[in-house]
């Protein structure tokens, strides 16, 4: 059966404007604490994380064991990924291309992890127009196919899919347990899975605060071994 796709309608623009206005990354913010569960090949790891975000796309992430010991500190910009591995005293240096190849996600689409809507889709089409409260949109960012499932009442993404054009690799993100910080909603629970079902990450965000003055800074580990990620 052939699905006939309709162009994005004018009333959809109002919904996407509401989505953009509620994006976490529209403002500087801090995630005070997030509990993370990683499921990989039958093994489970539980970690704690904090995150600082500053426009225009800089992230500083601290990953800790449940004991409170920091395992890694990660700094991400538009084209660079730096990781201080505090356990093995190693500084890893990667690029946007490395993220895309290894994890199927590039720095430009990291806001999708927080349930943010990106308005940079090309060839965007609407497949469902707020039927049963959900609007479904498909398009492309660079060579990645994006599927948005938008909650028309909350004006937040309920899920998003990022895949290559062949549909053989990519990620699925689902958002739930929405909470409010000030006037903005954010997903309290994020489920991150690869499309092959090999890896699954569950992120529970406890609280978000908004900061507009503090500058984030990444300090490479002193005397750390440097490894270039390829």
Key phrases:
about 230 residues, mainly beta, 15-stranded mixed β-sheet, 15 strands, globular
Describe the fold and architecture:
The protein is mostly beta strands and 230 residues long. The protein is built from two helices and 15 strands. Strand 2 and strand 3 form a beta hairpin.
Helices and strands, with pairings:
Elements lengths: L5 E2 L2 H12 L7 E12 L2 E12 L3 E8 L4 E7 L3 E6 L4 E6 H8 L18 E10 L2 E8 L2 E8 L4 E9 L5 E12 L2 E11 L4 E12 L14 E4 L2
Parallel strand pairs: 7-15
Antiparallel strand pairs: 1-8, 2-3, 2-14, 3-4, 4-5, 5-6, 6-7, 8-9, 9-10, 10-11, 11-12, 12-13, 13-14
Count of separate DSSP helical elements:
2
Task: Tally the beta strands.
Answer: 15
Query: Could you list the spans in which at least 5 consecutive residues all have pLDDT below 50?
Result: 1-11
Over all CA atoms, what is the radius of gyration?
A: 18 Å
Q: Tell me, what's the shape?
A: globular
| Through-space gap between termini | 42 Å
Measured by DSSP, the beta-strand proportion falls in: over 45%
- What structural category characterises the helix and strand content? mainly beta
Write the H/E string, N to C: EHEEEEEEHEEEEEEEE
The order of strands across the largest sheet is 1-8-9-10-11-12-13-14-2-3-4-5-6-7-15
Give the helix level as a range of percent.
under 10%
How does the major sheet shape up?
Answer: 15 strands, mixed
Estimate the mean pLDDT confidence. 88
